[in-house]
Amino acid sequence: MTWEGRRLQASRVLGLCAAGLALTLVAFATAVRFGEQPISLSSALGDPQSSDAVIFWSLRLPRALLGVIVGAGLAASGATLQGLLRNPLADPFVLGVSGGAALGATLALALGLATVGQVAPGLLGGLERLSGPALLAFLGAGASVLFVLAASRGHSARAPYAALLTGVVFNAFASAVITLVKTLSDPDRLGEILYWLAGTLGYERGATLWLAALLQVAAVGVMVALSGRLNLMMLGDDDAATLGVPVARTRRLLLLATSASVAGVVTLTGLIGFVGLIVPHVLRLAFGPDQRLLVPLSALGGAAFLVLADLLARLAVPLFGGEPPVGVITALLGGPLFIALLYRRGSSITG
Fold this sequence. Notes:
Elements: H1 3-33, H2 41-46, H3 51-84, H4 97-111, H5 116-119, H6 132-151, H7 161-184, H8 187-198, H9 206-225, H10 227-233, H11 237-242, H12 247-269, H13 275-287, H14 291-315, H15 317-320, H16 326-345, H17 347-350
Helix pairs in contact: 1-3, 1-14, 3-9, 3-12, 3-13, 3-14, 4-6, 4-7, 4-8, 4-12, 6-7, 6-12, 9-12, 9-14, 10-14, 13-14, 13-16, 14-16
């Protein structure tokens, strides 16, 4: 590609990402402004003691920020894995991360381990008040990633399919164990387990949001930095190696980055589906398969999608008599949309 061609390509990427950022900011502003309880924005910003300020700063703003963080991580991971596995049906949970995290959180909820202090009393100093299910979910996610990578090691001739199949099998195993735990749990704890598994955005503290944001910035940053190599790897491992790509090292880095991103997300929110599947699909159909554009654009699109889906969940409280989990909303929106795309574009969706 000539210098002029590279300049035009860079201008296109920057222009579309700027448009995606603008869309995300509009979605974020809408989410913090509206909800089940009407508020006055001038009162919220001008009077720190008002109830409007409490709702705005303590509830809506942290929840919208969490939605941005989670949506960006899920969609960027989905776009990366679809390219890495050369499978347009791959989603962020395909490597077994969701199974390990869900199993860890389910065990914590079933055993009544609400805080870290109950999991490891006296060992973690000032961290004993942190969420026990979140800790075990993160440990479960990390253990599942190590298991999948270790089990698929030595299968480079069939990579990346060995990791994919290992993750699918591990998810099935974890799902069976979770079903067993649910059947043995009392009704009160069963309700907590089902709600967590459905996926929901909570009201996290500032420190938790900062840590989650740093993790996603690092993970998504690796995906974006390696997106040029990923373009070449989508041609096939042999062709990519001929063009100078360190295939094995790049694959490991991308698998670790996507796994870390998804582990951080699932730890805080449970299982929120379709964000990492439908957002990259729509953007790929609209703007093409170039990962250098698709990964950052998916992060921005996923953030906007999840924030607006969570707003719908909050606005649906009068309709359902309670707030439905945001994972239910994303499934209700994403499922029909994916089927519509499938039948409209035919074989272009399934490759």
